[in-house]
Amino acid sequence: MTETIEMPLWLLLLILGFAIVAALDKVMLPSVRWFFRRRLERAVARLNQQLTRPIQPFKLMRRHDMMQRIIYDPEVGRAVQAHAHEHGIPEAVASETARKYAREIVPSFSAFAYFSFAIRAARLISNALFRVRLSYADADALRAIPEDTTVVFVMNHRSNMDYVLVTYLAADQSALSYAVGEWARVWPLSRLIRAMGAYFIRRKSRSDLYRNVLSCYVRHATEAGVTQAIFPEGGLSLTGGMGPPKLGLLKYMIDAAEESGRDVVFVPVAINYDRVLEDTILTAAASRKERRFRARIGVVFAWVLKQIWQRILGRFRRFGFAAVSFGEPVSLGSFKAKLDRDLTIPLARDLSRRIGALVPVLPVPLAAWLLQKNGEMTLEDVVAEFQRIVPALAGGRAILPDEDIETEAKDALQQLVDRRMLKRDGGRYRVSGDRVDLLAYYARSVADRLEVRSPDSASAEENAASAGS
After folding, report:
1. How far apart are alpha carbons 432 and 423 in whole angstroms?
2. The pTM is what?
């Protein structure tokens, strides 16, 4: 026991290294983690006092614990057994597949990343690129939503800027949990998006096991009261108008509400832009009749550098307005009381109708709609139409009454000329014919709010809407 043992210096250093790591893992790191965890909990508690909808404990749960909760859910367990039986594989293999799906879906929310970085970056980007406008159909109704309900913001999908813009404008409401498509599953973007609380979904997956794992996560989040944001169209609009709603996520939320007895309140949100950053990519995909977006990263990076260089030189001009309109909340419980059948399709249609009625009518889309309709107009004609149409809009309006409508109309026409959608000949503006698809794309975003319908078609739509609600 007292004999001297000789060993190489490298071996002694290796042993000391392992001893230090063991001491840190068993003694010091748990204390450090507890210290920072306590500080984080106090910070979140102070933050919750400032938010309309406090951050729910489920959202703050460790990612590993959340995954375990989903993997060992009875519904997922039955789906694993069915998957193993269907494909003739051991249950252990099917269980590992379910674990892979859960690892792919479940976020790792960081309150620090969301409120210290994401919201500030979203505010900076939004205001740097656009003149941001926000409107409410009934702000008091939003504030009056009971705390024991789950709030889901349901939005039209115009651009990837939607995530940035709504995150910024809803910063005083809560931390939103987005459903994000597969486009964002690239490193390091995926790490940042997970830290902001978003969860990834495979929109085209045909696997019953995958759908069970996804529905399990959505069910747990809905039952826990996590504030969520979904795009019912399931993807970016290729035409500028709203596409038909997808029913998957909505169905999962309805089922969760029925199982738990917790009410879900859906808030319609409509978004529109004077300039959609991906407009040429989207219209090109529409012309090919496919949802494959051929955007080379080098082109995107060069465009970003160009905008930064123009800002340095003082030549940068913002891309006009970006507007978000929040509609009146729709309680699932109240909606259910009016129907004695499955709610999913009627609710999806009702929410889509409400979103369409809220779409902000901005200068560029309005000018595009007028020129597409008339073919040729003078500046005076366009201004007169602006002055006639804008005051008549019953909400979702981004051109405020105290703004200079003539200046806005002139700027909108100039933007359309600069992008070769219109030609200016003396004092007259006419459709150029070069980028007809792009002109139609912007006109379509406001067409449903502006086009005059016959009394018969209007009454038929109202009857259909009342039947659906």
Report:
1. 5
2. 0.82
